[in-house]
């Protein structure tokens, strides 16, 4: 799917009527829209969002104050009344869909806020050779329009197709696992399953409340379940808020680190570098500590059972030993003796010539002997085996304590190492706070407060997570009690069956959700790796990209070590672009991709290297880059030229409050 | 040799849903995420150590197949049975059920003690507490 044409009328900087016709050529499907800051690049992205979805998410996040009026201010002040319209023409091999959103805005006579009137929408699609069109004047009632847009690119995942390059880095800052998780969950579109689960949970509650003529026990349990469910919801909400706070504080802390790295005075950058290194090392030590804890637990569980059973093992060993010593060693092995006696009975004659006829006392005597040999042989076989096994276990018991002491020592060493590194981090912080520059001092103090906030929030979140588990346990127990009480009351059979159906469905949906998320995570991991290794200029340095079950991303270098924390800004941008490409590819939607300021945070050489990789980026999708002239250097342009279809320049006239869209090149 | 493939280890259903579940799932438990077989064995041995043995009551739950015990664990169960019966006849195939019954009964009492050690509110590391209760045995072993 490609965008053929975008038409703007009086939308923010775009005064009057403007049309931009993008390249849809399959081999030259890269469009460049060049403009300085403030010329209207981001607003072009906003216009697309506004037309298709009726909102402007990038403004909502970054500059909410600009949300107020979408009309061109000069036009509005001169004419007092202005029509704002955005039209988008989209299609595969030819234009197939046309979307249009219009509003009339007028200056208010009462206050500074403009008034909105005459909202309308229009959608048309190609059916055979004919266009079918629909329109309306109520933005709250445009289901057909929304459904068609949703078929092309659902609202929930558009941010993986239309995005701001400068914000991409956020994904891979430390502690941002839940952002990665959120993105993958969004792409799975499993909110549909979540909605079903919520609906069924509500339905269960409704069914329980609707019981008539039930015992007071049933009513009490039902009330208790409702209260517990409500408290679980509140806890989930609190956890989400805490996660947001942690993300925000992590980001702020990273921004401070960035600033400190750029300081040229004193040894600030060196100290910050040391801190970066120590933080990576601490993360590795923490992983090792966790592994060691697990090793200690496993060693304990597998060893302590034999220590606790030491007396039994010893006594069984002695009993077997005594038996072995007490039994006269037979001249021939037990199984041979058994066979020999059996043969005598089959031949009905002893080796001495005595007849062993049925019922004869001689035959009975041999039969008795055979039974006793069988019994003794079975016990002996088993006891023989046990004799050696138990001896081995007793030997192992002797090592248990020393192995445990060794493991505890290794664990303690790791903890001590961590403490030392923590201490060094404190010293670095103190030194920075003591620098004779106010800015450094205040940045470091601020960083301290963010760290403190992160620590507190993480602890609180862990506490809330534990509380959720307890509440879930209680809900489970109460549900079981409820079921039991209901079973006693035959009148409630129908209700019981309905509740059971709800429970089973919720269980099944949760199972599906987990399975889908896992599958998608693995596919995103695979695709991110593919794109990253394909786009990166130092392919031989990196070996693998991993997204673990906690949605933590790691980059493995060819030495087998994790190196996400040491990636350069350029490399992180490549990783972020790869992740976005993986998300859009896994989503299954073939929508066009538009990136605002893709190289904004990258400088010098890395920028040129990324530019060389960009033509390979999403080769089969129409890609539009909204780019500043600082980003679009001649080398960058040259590195991308083979894929560029069209180039436009946004020329902003401050006096006229108007941006002209001028096609400047194409087929470079 | 191993236990026969059809032999199953039973626990009381309410203990499976209660104590076993909490020891297996709770983040506070040092035995979290371990196999139920391992938790059963620890419970059984704590029961044996404390001389607490209790026949199973109420509804039973099939916890796992006895054939999943490795040979060392198998001989631990057999040693307990030999010591209890003071007789090696318990090793005969036809007495397999008796060996498993003894194990189940020790675990049945032991699981409550283990649960109390972990969640009973006594401060400190539960593993260390179990370890200190076998200090004498460890000293004896060292000799």
Number of distinct beta strands of chain B: 2
What average pLDDT do the residues of chain B reach?
A: 90
Q: What's the CATH H-level superfamily name of the domain at 2-153 and 590-663 in chain A?
A: P-loop containing nucleotide triphosphate hydrolases
Computed Rg of chain A: 37 Å
Beta-strand content bin of chain B: 5-15%
Q: What order do the SSEs of chain B take from the amino end to the carboxyl end, as H and E? A: EHHEHHHH
Q: Give the DSSP E fraction of chain A (strand runs of 2 or more residues).
A: 15-25%
Strand order of the largest sheet of chain A: 2-1-4-5-6-7
Shape of chain B: globular
CATH architecture of the domain at 2-153 and 590-663 in chain A: 3-Layer(aba) Sandwich
Number of domains of chain B: 1
Major sheet details of chain A: 6 strands, antiparallel
Largest beta-sheet characterization of chain B: 2 strands, antiparallel
- Helical percent range of chain A? 55-70%
Structural class of chain A: alpha/beta
Q: What low-confidence regions of chain B span 5 or more consecutive residues with pLDDT below 50? A: none
Average pLDDT of chain A, rounded to a whole number, is: 84
Q: Strand-and-helix sequence of chain A, N→C? A: EEEHHHEEEEHEHHHHHHHHHEEHEHEHEE
Protein traits:
heterodimer, A: 668 residues, alpha/beta, Rossmann fold, 6-stranded antiparallel beta sheet, 6-stranded mixed beta sheet, 16 helices, 16% strand, B: 143 residues, mainly alpha, two-stranded antiparallel ribbon, globular
Q: What does this protein look like?
A:
- The complex is a heterodimer of chains A (668) and B (143).
- With 668 residues, chain A is of the alpha/beta class.
- Among the domains of chain A are: 2-153 and 590-663, 3-Layer(aba) Sandwich (Rossmann fold); 296-428, no CATH class.
- Helix content of chain A is 58%, strand content 16%.
- Chain A has helices at residues 41-53, 57-62, 73-79, 143-152, 177-188, 191-209, 216-262, 268-308, 310-326, 334-347, 361-433, 438-488, 493-535, 569-587, 604-613, 634-640, and strands at 2-11, 14-21, 30-34, 81-91, 95-106, 115-127, 130-136, 162-164, 542-547, 553-557, 593-596, 623-627, 644-653, 658-663.
- A two-stranded antiparallel ribbon of chain B has the order 1-2.
- Chain B has 143 residues and is mainly α.
- Chain B is built from 6 helices and 2 strands.
- The radius of gyration of chain B is 15 Å and the shape is globular.
- In chain B, α1 packs across α4, α2 packs across α4 (96-119) and α3 crosses α4 (96-119).
- Chain A binds chain B through residues 296-298, 300-302, 304-313, 315-317, 319-320, 323, 375, 378-379, 382-383, 385-386, 389-390, 392-393, 396-398, 400-401, 404, 466, 469, 473, and chain B through 1, 22, 26-27, 30-31, 34, 38, 41-42, 44-46, 48-49, 71-73, 75-76, 78-80, 82-83, 86, 88-89, 91-93, 127, 130-131, 134, 137-138, 140-142.
């Amino acid at each position: 799917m490609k965008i053929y044409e975008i038409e703007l009328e009086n939308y923010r900087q775009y005064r009057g009527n403007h049309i931009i016709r993008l390249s849809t050529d399959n081999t030259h499907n890269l469009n460049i829209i060049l403009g300085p800051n403030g010329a209207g690049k981001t607003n072009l992205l906003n216009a697309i969002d506004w037309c298709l979805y009726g909102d402007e998410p990038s403004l909502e996040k970054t500059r909410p104050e600009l949300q107020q009026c979408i009309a061109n201010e000069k036009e509005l002040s001169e004419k007092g009344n202005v029509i704002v319209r955005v039209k988008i023409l989209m299609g595969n091999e030819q234009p197939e869909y046309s979307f249009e959103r219009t509003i009339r805005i007028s200056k208010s006579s009462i206050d500074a806020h403009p008034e909105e009137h005459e909202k309308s929408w229009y959608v048309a699609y190609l059916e055979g050779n004919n266009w079918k069109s629909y329109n309306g004047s109520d933005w709250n009632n445009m289901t057909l329009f929304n459904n068609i847009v949703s078929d092309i690119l659902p609202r929930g995942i558009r941010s993986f197709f239309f995005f701001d390059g400068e914000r991409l880095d956020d994904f891979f800052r430390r502690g941002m696992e839940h952002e990665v998780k959120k993105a993958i969950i969004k792409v799975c579109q499993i909110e549909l399953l979540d909605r079903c689960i919520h609906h069924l949970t509500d339905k269960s509650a409704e069914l329980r409340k609707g019981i008539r003529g039930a015992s007071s026990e049933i009513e009490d349990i039902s009330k208790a379940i409702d209260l517990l469910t409500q408290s679980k919801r509140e806890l989930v909400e609190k956890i989400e808020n805490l996660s947001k706070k942690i993300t925000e504080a992590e980001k702020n802390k990273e921004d401070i680190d960035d600033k400190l790295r750029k300081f040229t005075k004193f040894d600030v950058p060196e100290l910050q570098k040391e801190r970066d290194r120590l933080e990576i090392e601490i993360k590795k030590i923490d992983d090792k500590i966790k592994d060691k804890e697990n090793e200690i637990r496993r060693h304990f569980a597998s060893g302590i059972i034999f220590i606790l059973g030491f007396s039994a093992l010893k006594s069984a060993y002695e009993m077997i030993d005594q038996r072995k010593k007490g039994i006269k060693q037979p001249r021939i092995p037990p199984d041979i003796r058994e066979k020999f006696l059996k043969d005598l009975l089959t031949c009905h004659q002893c080796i001495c010539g005595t007849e062993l006829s049925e019922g004869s006392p001689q035959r009975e005597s041999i039969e008795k002997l055979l039974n006793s040999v069988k019994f003794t042989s079975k016990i002996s076989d088993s006891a023989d085996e046990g004799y050696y096994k138990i001896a081995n276990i007793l030997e192992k018991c002797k090592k248990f304590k020393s192995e445990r002491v060794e493991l505890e020592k290794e664990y303690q060493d790791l903890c001590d190492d961590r403490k030392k590194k923590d201490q060094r981090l404190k010293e670095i912080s103190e030194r920075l706070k003591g620098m004779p520059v106010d800015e450094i001092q205040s940045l470091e103090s601020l960083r301290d407060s963010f760290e403190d906030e992160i620590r507190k929030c993480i602890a609180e979140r862990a506490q809330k997570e534990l509380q959720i588990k307890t509440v879930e346990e209680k809900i489970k127990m109460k549900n079981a009690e409820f079921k039991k009480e209901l079973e006693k009351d035959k009148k409630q059979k129908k209700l019981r069956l309905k509740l059971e159906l709800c429970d089973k469905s919720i269980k099944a949906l949760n199972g599906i959700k987990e399975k889908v998320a896992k599958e998608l995570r693995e596919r995103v991991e695979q695709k991110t790796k593919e794109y990253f290794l394909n786009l990166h200029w130092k392919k031989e340095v990196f070996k693998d990209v991993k997204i673990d079950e906690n949605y933590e991303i790691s980059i493995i270098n060819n030495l087998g070590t994790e190196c996400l924390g040491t990636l350069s800004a350029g490399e992180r941008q490549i990783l972020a672009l790869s992740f976005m490409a993986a998300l859009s590819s896994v989503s299954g939607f073939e929508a066009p991709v538009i990136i605002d300021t893709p190289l904004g945070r990258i400088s010098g050489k890395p920028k040129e290297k990324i530019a060389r990789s960009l033509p390979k980026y999403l080769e089969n999708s129409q890609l539009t880059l909204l780019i500043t002239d600082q980003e679009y250097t001649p080398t960058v342009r040259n590195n991308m030229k083979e894929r560029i279809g069209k180039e436009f320049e946004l020329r902003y006239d401050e006096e006229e409050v108007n941006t002209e869209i001028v096609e400047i090149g194409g087929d470079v | 040799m191993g236990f026969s493939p059809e032999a199953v280890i039973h626990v009381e259903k309410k203990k499976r849903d209660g104590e076993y579940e909490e020891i297996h799932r709770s983040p506070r438990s040092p035995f979290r995420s371990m196999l139920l077989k391992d938790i059963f064995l620890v419970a059984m041995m704590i029961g044996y150590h404390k001389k607490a043995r209790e026949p199973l009551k109420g509804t039973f739950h099939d916890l796992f197949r006895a054939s999943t015990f490795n040979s060392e664990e198998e001989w631990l169960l057999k040693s307990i049975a030999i010591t209890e019966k003071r007789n090696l006849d318990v090793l005969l195939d036809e007495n397999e059920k008796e060996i498993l019954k003894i194990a189940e009964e020790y675990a049945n009492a032991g699981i409550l003690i283990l649960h109390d050690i972990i969640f009973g509110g006594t401060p400190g590391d539960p593993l260390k507490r179990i370890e200190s209760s076998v200090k004498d045995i460890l000293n004896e072993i060292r000799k």
